[in-house]
Amino acid sequence: MSRSLNFRLFALSAIAMAAHLTAAQAATDTVLGETTVRATAEEELKQALGVSVITQEELTERAPANDISELVRTMPGVNLTGNSASGQYGNNRQIDLRGMGPENTLILIDGKPVQSRNGAKMGRSGERDTRGDSNWVPVEAIERIEVIRGPAAARYGSGAAGGVVNIITKKPTDKLQGSVTVYGKFQEDSKEGDTKRSSFNLSGPLAENLSFRLFGNMAHSDADSPDLNRTAATTTAMAPAGREGVKNKDINALLRWDLTPQQVLEFEMGASRQTNEYAGETAVSIDANAPIRESLLGQETNRTNRNTLGVTHRGKWDWGTSRLIFQYENTRRWQNPVALAGGPEGSISSTTDKITSKLGNYFLSGEVNTPLKLGGTTHMLTTGFEYRNEKLDDAAAMSLTTGTGANNVGGLVGSAGTRSGKSDAQNFALFVEDNFEPIQNLILTPGVRFDHHSQSGNNWSPSLNATYQLNDSWQVKGGIARAFKAPNLYQTNNNYLYFTMGNGCPVSSPSLGGGCYVVGNPDLQAETSINKELGVAYTNHNGLDASLSYFQNDYKDKIYAEMNDGTPVVVGTSQVYQWMNASKAIVKGFEGNLTVPLDGKNGNTLKLVNNFTYMLKNHNKDSNQPLSVIPKYTVNSTLDWTINANWSTQLNATFYGRQEPRTIQTGGAASTGAQLQEVSSYALYGIGAQYKINKSYALNFGITNLADKRLYRESNNSAAGASTYNELGRAYYVSLTGRF
C-alpha cells in the first residue's frame, strides 16, 4: 500500500468517526431501553490474569528514588534487564515484561505512547545507550500504574509483544489544592550515588467548566565512584562503570474544559530534560579509550529533551462512549560521539561538538464503544483506528573507516554523498473488539487489529480472551493473541551504518582485523509473537486473594544483525553485516500472587502480600541462548501493617533466582572461563514507615537493602558472564509531603 493511500485511509477513518459523532449527537431520540451495558473490551481485558495495578497507596508507601521502574519491577512477570544477553549498558536496565525484553515493553502515559528512547542508536546486540522511557513523570504526579502482560496487551499494537506499562496521571480537581514533596536517599557506602528530588502538584478550577493541573519535578542522582567496581574488575586501566548520574527537570500543564456534562476536552503540554553525569560507561572493552573516559568522568556526555503537545476529547452519548487522542512528541538527543569510524563500538570522544539526533512522533487514535443487543445477548462493541508517524534525523554513524576508499559498502550502502540519517515510517491501524456473555458465567472478549506499516507491510493481530466464573470465589481465565513489533528506523534505513570492532567481529578469519559495518535493511518484516496464558484466580469476602497462571510466548522473526547470506562481505579489512529476520524464540513460565489477611477486616490492619515469577524458558530456539540475563525466579513479599490512623509500616523482601549468561558469544565462539559465570540467587530486604503528622504534613522514611547484600559489576560486557550490573548496598531514605 502506498504512503498516499495509507494517508487517505487514515483521513477517511477520521472523517467517518467525526461524522459518526456528529450524527449520534443529533440523534438524541436513540434510546437503548433496559439494555444492561457491559464493560468495554479494554476494561474487561484489564481484569485478565496478566494485569497488575500499582495503587496510589503503594506509590506512597514504596515511592522510588527516581525512576518508577524501581517499583514496577516488584510486580509479577516483571524484571529489569537489557535487551540482550550482551551485558552492554548493564546498569541501564529497563522494564522487561515476561522476558520479552525492554524493546517489547510499550510505555504509555495516559494511554499515549512514549517513544523517546527510539532516538538513541541501536547497536548490533540490540542495546541502546538509554535509560528508557519510565522516568518522564514524577511519582507524586501519578494516580496509578497499570502493568498489562500477555494477550491483553496485543490491542495496543507495535511494541507491546511483552506488555504495556500505562502511567495514569492525577486529574484536575474541583477545588484548589496542591502538594510539595522533598525526598532524599543516602547510600551508606560513599562510593554509591545519593538521590535528591523535589516536586509539586497544583490543581483546581479556573472558571465554570474550566479546570487545570500543573506538576513539576527536579531530581538529581549522583554518579557512582569510578572505583566502585575496582575490586571485582580484571581490567588494568579503568574499572567497569557503576551507575551514571541523572538529572531530571520536568514540567507539565493540563487544561480541562467540560464542554457539556457529557463532553470533555483536554489540552496538555509538557517539557522534560534528562542529562547524565558520565561514570565511565563503554559498550565493549573495559579498557577502551581509557584516557578520554577518565577525562570525562562526572561531565555531561548526553542530554535528552522531550516536549509533548496533546489534545484529548471524551464523550458520553445516548449510543455509547467515544475517545479521540492526538499527541505530538518531540525528542532531541545530544551526545558525545561514540562508535567512531576506526574505533571500538561504544568508545566515546572528548570532542566538544556533540552529535544531535531529532525524533518526532505523531500519534492519533480514536475509538467508539457501542452497547448492542444481538440475539438476546448484550454486547459492548469497540471500533477504532490509530495512526503513528515517526520521523528521525540522526547523522551520528554514517562514516566509512578511514583509509578503506570504499564508496559502496558491500553493495548495500550508497556513496558517502548519498547517505542520509533521515528516515521515517508510518503505521495505520483499524481494530474491532467485542465483550459479551454467550452463556451464563462465561465472558468472551474477541478482537482483531489490522496494521499497515510503511516499511514492514501488513500485520493482523487477532485475539481471544475468556473468563469463566465457576462459583463466587473461583474463576478460570485464559487468552491467546498475536502481537508484533515493527522494525525501528535504524534497522530499516539502508543509508544508515555504523562501525564496530566488538561483538565478535570479524567472525571468519583472524587476518581480517578491521571490524564490521552494520547497515540497515528496508526489507525487514515485523517481529511477531503468539502469546498465550491460562490460569485460575480465587478470592473470598475475607480478603484472601490468589492466582496462578501459565504463560507462553512463541516469538519469531526476531531481528538480528547478521551476514545477509551467511557469507562475509569484505570491504578493505572490514566485514558487512545487515539487520535480518533471523531467529525464533520461546518464552514461558508461571506467575501468580497470594494475599493473606492476618488481622482486621479483609486484612486492613495486617496482611501479607506476595507475588512470584518462575521462568521455564527464555531462549533463542536456533542457538539455545538466553534472550536476556533474567533471574530463574523472582518472589516479592510485603508484610503491611496499619498500626493506627496515623502510622503504617511495611517489611518487604525480594528473592532472585540464579542468572545464567549465554554460552556462545555474539561472534559464534564458545564462552569460556569468566564468560560462563552465573549470578547466584540472592535476597534483598527493606523496611518503610509512614507517619501523618497532621492533615497537612506526612513523613515517609525507611531503609533499603537492610542486609547490605551487594553485587559488583565485573565487566561492561559478557566477559564476566552475568555479572554485568550493580546491586547497591544499604541506603536510608526520607521524604516530607505538605498538602493544602
Automatic annotation (TrEMBL):
Principal location: membrane
GO cellular component, one term: cell outer membrane
InterPro entries: Beta-barrel_TonB (IPR000531), Beta-barrel_TonB_sf (IPR036942), PirA/FepA/PfeA (IPR058134), Plug_dom (IPR012910), Plug_dom_sf (IPR037066), TonB-dep_rcpt-like (IPR039426), TonB_rcpt_CS (IPR010917), TonB_sidphr_rcpt (IPR010105)
Keyword Iron (UniProt): yes
SUPFAM superfamilies: Porins
Matches recorded under CDD domains: ligand_gated_channel
All copies of domain TonB-dependent receptor-like beta-barrel, residue ranges: 298-706
Signal peptide coordinates: 1-26
Location(s) in or outside the cell: Cell outer membrane
Name of the protein this chain belongs to: TonB-dependent siderophore receptor
